Amino acid sequence: MQFQSFDQLATLIAVVEADASVLFSNSALEDALGSSRRSIVGSCFADSFTEPHALHVALDGARGNNFAAVRYDAWLKRVGMEPMPVHVIITRTDLVEHTIVEMVPLEQQTRQDREERLAEQAQSNKELIRNLAHEIKNPLGGIRGAAQLLEMEMESPELTEYTQVIIREADRLQSLVDRLLAPHRRPHLVGDVNIHEVCERVRSLILAEFPKGLRVVRDYDISIPEFRGDREQLIQTVLNIAHNACHALADRRQAGDAELTFRTRVTRQITFGKQRYRLALELHVIDNGPGIPESIKDRIFYPLVSGREGGSGLGLTLAQTFVQQHHGLIEVDSVPGRTDFKILIPLP
């Protein structure tokens, strides 16, 4: 069929005839309406909106060559659900009697904008970190070497204490630089990954470090298939998120009611990163801590931004980088009493 390629699109598409009857509905529209293609095709598409008259007016305008495309906002009815706010775009086809009605869910548009910002931010962070690390590394070696030479010339043990401070601080900065450059140096080692083995590894590490006052809940969907990925990178990703959560749970750990949850689910027909996926992994790392401070909530994936004293501010930056290397992304939803980091990765 000539319109079958529309099934590959994430936006909602209907091809309608002059009387607004549906000639074709793509898969995304079926999912949104909660109806089968068979029941949608042949129906009057205007009746799918809370204000049917607006579609008829828009179709008349498009066919009258008044505009190259007609755009307006509307509410799309859904079976058993609340109406969905959508941005409607109407364009003519080469066949005069056929018109394409494209609908972009406004919540999806907002999400796409947010994902684009995250992707751009991650790329900017990567370039900034790489350049900054190299700029720091070169003079750092010179400072350390000069301090060692100076120490060899000193006869007073008291004065060598100062050169030792220089050397130790240079080593500390070198360690920080190495961590900044680590994700760009290490090759992406791809193999079969079982996400629950990843979670279990992180769980054992977390319980070894925080043995008291913390309950780790496992809520797994064991039907999730293995997928191709870098197991060590994913362990580091989940560990960084869980480690931050445990530090945020300090008061609750002391009270004995801290809780960390690993939840795995499969989500179907999901769009992220401007691409639609048939299946994707959802891995949630949820804690019952105080939540992310408002002052840094919009910047938590920026490098060197930390919500705790002594934090390096690199954990979440590296986590987002690793997940993006798996064509996924990390989202976060945080309120006092519940913070949920959601890792999304496409599945085969």
TrEMBL record:
Keywords: ATP-binding, Kinase, Nucleotide-binding, Phosphoprotein, Transferase, Two-component regulatory system. Residues 131-348 form the Histidine kinase domain. InterPro entries: HATPase_C_sf, HATPase_dom, His_kinase_dom, HisK_dim/P_dom, HisK_dim/P_sf, Sig_transdc_His_kin-like_C. It comes from Rhodoferax aquaticus. Its EC number is 2.7.13.3. This is histidine kinase. PANTHER family: SENSOR HISTIDINE KINASE, SENSORY HISTIDINE KINASE_PHOSPHATASE NTRB. It catalyses: ATP + protein L-histidine = ADP + protein N-phospho-L-histidine. It comes from the Bacteria. GO terms for molecular function: ATP binding; phosphorelay sensor kinase activity. The keyword Translocase does not apply.
